[in-house]
Amino acid sequence: MKLYPIETGLFKLDGGAMFGVVPKTIWQKSNPADELNMCSWSMRCLLIEDGNRLILIDTGIGNKQSEKFFSYYYLHGEDTLDKSLAAQGFHRNDITDVFLTHLHFDHCGGAIERNPSGEGFRPAFPAATFWSCERHWQWATHPNAREKASFLQENIIPLKESGQLRFIDRPSDFASTALGFDVLFVDGHTDSMMIPHIPYQGRTVVYMADLLPSAGHIPLPYVMGYDTRPLITLEEKGRFLEEAAKREHVLFFEHDSVNECATLVQTEKGIRASETFRFSELFG
Q1: Mean pLDDT of the region 83-90
Q2: Would you give the DSSP letter of residue 276?
């Protein structure tokens, strides 16, 4: 097995929304904001090469939305999904599986593209099986008013229509998959978000998705304003941090524009980052 960080570009979101009730005077030390109070965030995917399988975890925001839509998010940076795949010697047609942690547009938008005619949509990975969770699928296709703007139907419905969609079972809050890694199900950010736990070179690499968007979100009260059930997030984060610190897991951040990874340590103030580093610095 070999893992590759895949950068798909940067976008901006309001710092207050990203840190919830934590005051700006505190969170801006780790995530400085611009004059509009916006902070830069990564949309970092993870590619797993395992035998004949090439598994992509999340896909970034994609490029099919309108210019007006993208203007809200200030896309920037030189990285794209295709450029990052090519840098590792791969093409999107090589991808055998696309694992979607959840169906918010910045995580799954790149899974679907417009047809060449400009009419209608098709999978952006023609040879891939797309993996979601049925409980989350129902949540996303019948969205609540708060999340409706994050669940874009053009990102979601074509997955089912393609015949390439499969579901990960949720028999409990921690489950095995057919993809060679286990997943933790969490419900605070959105219902049944999946957090992959990947065994790699004697460690466990945890793809954090939106349970911990960045190293700046490690302290327990740092919960996003976007989370639908923030008190549940607090409980889930607390349990996760204790387990990850004890087992020395490597946290892989999807949204941290500076720090790709971190490990954890228990301090008198609670669990904090022990080290932050690039993936290649630990695993080569």
Answers
A1: 98
A2: E
Structure confidence by residue, pLDDT tens digits, 108-156: 999 999 999 888 999 999 999 999 999 999 999 999 999 999 999 999 9
CB atoms within 10 A of CB 122: 14
DSSP 3-state assignment of 142? coil
* Per-residue tokens: 218: 């490690």
Tokens representing 46 are: 């993870």
Q: How many angstroms separate the CA atoms of 112 and 122, rounded?
A: 6
Q: Which of 74, 141, 135, 128 is nearest to 98 (CA)?
A: 128
Do residues 49 and 1 touch, judged by C-beta distance below 8 A?
yes
Q: Is 65 helix (H, G, I), strand (E, B) or coil?
A: coil
Strand 129-133, strand 165-168: pairing: parallel
pLDDT at 119: 86
Q: Where does residue 209 rank: exposed (0-12), middle (13-18), buried (19+ CB within 10 A)?
A: buried
- CA gap 17, 248 in Å, rounded: 30
Contact 110, 59 (CB under 8 A): yes
Longest dimension (CA), the chain: 59
What distance in Å separates the CA atoms of residue 149 and residue 145, rounded to the nearest whole number?
Answer: 8
Give the contacts of 171 (CB within 8 A, at least 6 positions apart).
Answer: none
Distance CA 161, CA 242 (A): 41
In angstroms, rounded to a whole number, what is the distance separating the alpha carbons of residues 95 and 126?
8
Instruction: Please say whether the beta carbons of 259 and 276 come within 8 A.
Output: yes
Give 92's DSSP letter: G
Q: Which two tokens stand for residue 175?
A: 């489950």
Q: What is the pLDDT of residue 86?
A: 98
Query: Which 3 state secondary structure label does DSSP give 82?
Result: helix
pTM: 0.97
